[in-house]
Model the fold of this input.
Amino acid sequence: MKKTILTLQVVTLCIGLTLSNLGCRGKLNDATEHYDIGVLHWKQGRIDDAIEEYNKAITIYPDFEMAHFNLGSLYYEKGDIALAIESFKKAIEIKPDLVEAHSMLGVAYEMYNMFQDAVEEYRKALELDPNQAGNYTNLGNLYYKMEKYDEAIAEYQKAIRITPDFAEAYNNLGYVYYETRKYSFAINEFKKAIELNPDYISAHTNLSMAYRKVGLHDQSKEEIEIAKQLALKKQANQR
Done:
């Protein structure tokens, strides 16, 4: 049975942000046109065209931090992590308080197994905005990978305090409890995740595993059957 812990909370919020809405003037105007075209290409799934437009924007106006950020997000989406890191770092160099760039640089560092650098970037993002639950979850996931389980638990709990309906944080918290053999705690957290999101396949799967560990085999079978049915339903909807 597959063990499941959630993936990173990837930030790409600026896909819908056009600089014409920010009131940019003067020499930014030409760069802004390319930026806005890049946003449209991105929304419509034309990733390479979007990259081309963001690069044009940066050529015209090299200090265009949002163009660097979106470019980094697209490189990340394509799996070119080295270029993504370069772009996020440039965005931060221009605008050190750009929270999303610190978050995504942390994500990119984590993909490269540069764990300590990732921790530092998540921490910087949280210093700038302590109310982003996704960054606490990212930090919790990273501490889990580093086998720092107490730290992981603390970060998930912070995420839940900020966003009490954050099903993923409950699931991840439950999984750390499961891995540390605190099965009753794990069961409680998985149940909370399912209460918030009844279609949450990972939480049903994890709850099945936890039930099995405490000898509740009927409940375990019931949960894995629910997970299978939800997976089939999801598959059918994707056709």
Observations:
- Residues 1-24 have pLDDT under 50 and may be disordered.
- The longest helix spans residues 217-237.
- Residues 165 and 196 are 6 Å apart (CA to CA).
- The radius of gyration is 20 Å.
